[in-house]
Amino acid sequence: MNVHVAALAKSHRLDQQTTAFASDVIDDLSQTPKRLSPKYFYDAKGSELFEQITLLPEYYPTRTELSILRDQSGAISEMVPKGAALVEFGAGATTKVRLLLNECALGAYVPVDISGDFLQSQADALRKDFPALDVYPVTADFTTSFALPEAIGSMAKVGFFPGSTLGNFEPHEACAFLRSARDILGQGARLVIGVDLEKDESVLYKAYNDAAGVTARFNLNILNRINRELGGNFDTSAFTHRAIYNRDRHRIEMYLISGKAQTVRVLGHSFSFRPGETIHTESSYKYSLERFRALARASGWALLESWTDEASMFSVHALVASD
Ligand code: AVI
To answer: CA dihedral in degrees (50, 86, 174, 183; nearest 10)?
Structure first.
């Protein structure tokens, strides 16, 4: 963090998380081209908008992954040793993990998420519906190293990373995450992971440019969040959402585009925009089965099995830590 942001954080009495947000926003808007990190989409409003995205007719990933987990729950549960602890990286809606909890004889469930309050409410709901299951929530940024609860020390470990969140990491970050997950879970661990697949560009385009404009509101909300939490003065009506598919890099790229020449202030910093200038807010990588398997291999994991839906829109993989 630069000295200036540290001083500002002190004078504005910002907490630790908001200070990190401020520091990243000021650094990222100072870059050419400008960017913002997609991890800041998910405040309460952004999480609500994301839940709405998952229900959109054009947004196929969530319902397709759910159908694979439902159809293959028997085969997936065979990859999960009896009495194992299931460690979920990031805790969203519990719909997906419930499919595994119904099928696998788990020893414990360990959801890991940065948002402690949300985590506790999800853990409480699961305890109510699965009274025999030990739930040990861990409040941590799952992209960094964290300690597993002592209570699961002797249990076999299985990681769970659904939703193709891996696709929002740059390839080097995806590799670092998979290596870190392997270190955290330990020798002999397994990992069940959801990965979105490359497909017809028009299907991808529509999934990120939905007719109802929910993805646009989700994208623009990051500017509202900067206004709310950092006292920024973005005029959100002067920016528009755009998502394109970059075929060479196998990724959807989301941008916010300035509709005019304007200057925006955030915590005493000024950022000037030209008409048409972009802020790159998210990449969503789409993998072929081969490219994902190569990434897993290079990150310390061997493939046990892969499952896809009939149209090969989405994939779920069971991996085992290689020695
Ligand atoms: C969370 N993540 C996997 C979503 C995706 O598809 O990359 C985020 C998202 N962005 C726009 N729509 C959905």
So the answer is: 150
C-beta of 64 in contact with ligand 1 (< 6 A): no
Per the CB < 8 A criterion, the answer to whether 231 and 240 are in contact is no
pLDDT at 141 over 80: yes
> What is the per-residue pLDDT across 232-275, written as a single tens digit (0 to 9) for each?
999 999 999 999 999 999 999 999 999 999 999 999 999 999 99
pTM: 0.94
Tokens 């290079």 appear where? 298
Please give the radius of gyration of the chain, using alpha carbons only, rounded to the nearest integer: 20
**Spatial contact of 221 and 46, defined as CB atoms under 8 Å apart:** yes
Q: Whose CA is nearest to atom 4 of ligand 1?
A: 165
**3-state SS, residue 240:** strand
What stretch of H or E contains 21? helix 16-29
For ligand 1, say whether the CB of 221 is within 6 Å of any of its atoms.
no
